[in-house]
């Protein structure tokens, strides 16, 4: 079977390609080019290291220039969200549009029946012939949260060989085969942000936008001082505020009308019991027209919490948690789970 592998040259994608090659599959590795020439996050040796990894495994490799698509569909969306006081989730947007959307097309054009990635998640074929997206068994690295917006039609053509492995098992496999990246440190926000840069500030510079000025205010609207830019803050943030209130302060709200950022020293005010989310994506269509109970995860690092999902019409839902959740953040995804299965998700308003 001919399989396309999303290939960053890191240990996860390299191990994915290696495992599939060792099973006798014909592999074509594809690396997405997402950073335009001159980007400060570009490493002069990055492409050479990727090619070296592909050669070490002994697989065909190609680069695919998606810089314009990535800028227009992911980066611009992200900046627009930050500029309105929302906190974007670029990976959850990129996956259906770019990583899987464009690479599944690449796979088809190059005679590959499937696209494989190094995600720590699983796709199960069920008894009725349908497919389910599930958590990776290594919960510390589970990435299913970022994949909720994939369409159910994509699932039969996707492979995720690392879904039942731990990170250390992957590194051990890479060491056994002498892959040059076996012990390479993981990078964060590597798709765009340069080292030591704040993502929202990188986006502001990318689009030559002005920092929107405003004031820090308390819960009663009293001005506490000026802030450095509306895009720099998110609900629940404590560090990097650069204002002294005598004790730790937290971002409680961002007002898109005034550009003001509300602070509070009372962390309990961050806890809320319900949210509304829109533009729902369903991987289990039977959930789309009924109210039901499940577990809901409101950010990548948060624990899923029991909640009731209430349909509101117009592809919107209300989520009512059994216990209040900290820092429910507009722009982030609320992802719905039943046990380890992803039912769908929506965008918090």
CATH class of the largest domain: Alpha Beta
Q: Mind telling me which CATH architecture of the largest domain this is?
A: 3-Layer(aba) Sandwich
Please tell me the total number of domains: 3
Unreliably modeled segments:
none
Would you tell me which CATH topology of the largest domain applies?
Answer: Rossmann fold
Task: Calculate Rg over CA atoms.
Answer: 21 Å
For the largest beta-sheet, the strand count, sense and barrel status come to: 6 strands, antiparallel, barrel
How would you briefly describe this protein structure?
The chain has helices spanning 11-22, 46-57, 67-83, 90-99, 101-109, 167-176, 199-206; strands at residues 2-6, 26-33, 60-65, 114-116, 121-125, 131-135, 158-159, 214-217, 223-227, 250-254, 261-264, 271-282, 292-297, 305-313, 316-326, 333-338, 341-348. With 349 residues, the chain is an alpha/beta fold.
Could you characterize the architecture of this molecule?
The chain is an alpha/beta fold and 349 residues long. The chain folds into three domains: 2-176, Rossmann fold; 211-265, SH3 type barrels; 271-348, Beta Barrel (Elongation Factor Tu (Ef-tu), domain 3). It is built from seven helices and 17 strands. A six-stranded antiparallel beta barrel has the order 12-15-14-13-16-17. A five-stranded parallel β-sheet has the order 3-2-1-4-7. Helix 1 packs across helix 6 (167-176) and helix 3 (67-83) packs antiparallel against helix 4. The longest helix is centred in the first third of the chain and has 17 residues, at 67-83. The N and C termini lie far apart (43 Å). The mean pLDDT is 94.
């Amino acid at each position: 079977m001919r399989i396309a592998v999303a290939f960053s040259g890191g240990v996860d994608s390299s191990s994915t390609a290696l495992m599939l090659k060792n099973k006798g599959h014909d592999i074509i590795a594809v690396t997405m080019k997402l950073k335009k020439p001159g980007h400060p996050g570009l490493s002069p040796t990055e492409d050479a290291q990727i090619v070296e990894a592909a050669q070490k495994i002994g697989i065909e490799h190609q680069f695919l220039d998606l810089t314009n698509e990535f800028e227009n569909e992911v980066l611009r969306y992200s900046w627009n969200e930050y500029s309105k006081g929302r906190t974007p989730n670029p990976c959850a947007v990129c996956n259906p549009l770019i990583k899987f959307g464009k690479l599944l097309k690449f796979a088809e054009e190059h005679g590959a029946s499937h696209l494989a990635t190094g995600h720590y998640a699983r796709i199960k074929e069920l008894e009725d012939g349908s497919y389910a997206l599930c958590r990776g068994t290594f919960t510390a690295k589970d990435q299913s949260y970022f994949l909720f917006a994939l369409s159910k039609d994509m699932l039969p053509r996707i492979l995720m060989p690392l879904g039942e492995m731990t990170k250390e098992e992957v590194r051990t496999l890479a060491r056994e085969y002498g892959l040059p990246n076996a012990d390479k440190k993981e990078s964060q926000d590597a798709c765009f942000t340069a080292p030591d840069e704040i993502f929202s500030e990188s986006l502001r510079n990318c689009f030559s936008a002005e920092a929107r000025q405003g004031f820090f205010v308390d819960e009663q609207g009293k001005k506490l001082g000026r802030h450095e830019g509306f895009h720099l803050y998110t609900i629940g943030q404590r560090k990097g505020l650069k204002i002294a209130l005598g004790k730790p302060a937290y971002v409680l709200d961002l007002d898109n009308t005034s550009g003001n950022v509300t602070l509070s020293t009372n962390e309990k005010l961050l806890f809320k019991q319900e949210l509304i989310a829109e533009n729902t994506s369903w991987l289990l269509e039977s959930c789309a027209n009924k109210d039901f109970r499940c577990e809901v995860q409101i950010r990548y690092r948060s624990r899923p919490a029991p909640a009731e999902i209430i349909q509101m019409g117009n592809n919107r839902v209300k989520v009512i948690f059994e216990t209040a959740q900290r820092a429910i953040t507009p722009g982030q995804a609320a992802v719905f789970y039943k046990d380890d299965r992803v039912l769908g998700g929506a965008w918090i308003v």
